[in-house]
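Figure 6 in text form: structure in, sequence out.
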């Protein structure tokens, strides 16, 4: 038996297979002493604790919110490649006057119905594109006030 295992109860479990529960039950001894064997905090621990207390105070001064990310981004993936993205930051306000982004739709009427169900508005209903079989488009306003185009071939 290796020196590392000397003093432990040998019962055919922990020395043959992994049985942590059995090992602990067979080798655990309750400590009934006091904390006098413990060491005090190190200088590094005191420094870390001091910094943590400073941060907690600052967090309380900010009503429980110290700092958090407010920017968000969602990517559009097509065949494993990023083909576009939407980005949000607090300074970006919903607007009907910004760039009009278009998304493909399998069924414009179904998409517009879902927009209405979610509190959006139809700005331009399904409209045929008067070029050689180019399909249809519509413009909607989402629940945040952004105008978005949709396209159906």
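Output sequence:
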């Amino acid at each position: 038996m290796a020196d590392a295992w000397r003093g432990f109860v040998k019962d055919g479990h922990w020395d043959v297979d992994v049985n942590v529960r059995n090992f602990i039950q067979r080798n655990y001894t309750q400590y009934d002493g006091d904390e006098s064997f413990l060491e005090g905090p190190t200088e590094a621990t005191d420094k870390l604790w001091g910094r943590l207390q400073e941060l907690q105070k600052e967090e309380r001064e900010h009503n429980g919110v110290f700092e958090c990310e407010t920017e968000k981004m969602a990517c559009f993936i097509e065949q494993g490649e990023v083909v576009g993205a939407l980005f949000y930051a607090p300074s970006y306000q919903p607007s009907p006057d910004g760039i009009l982004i278009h998304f493909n739709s399998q069924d414009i009427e179904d998409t517009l119905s879902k927009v209405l169900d979610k509190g959006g508005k139809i700005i331009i209903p399904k409209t045929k594109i008067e070029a050689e079989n180019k399909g249809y488009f519509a413009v909607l306003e989402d629940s945040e006030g952004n105008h978005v185009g949709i396209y159906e071939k």
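Caption detail: The helical segments are 20-27, 43-61, 108-117.
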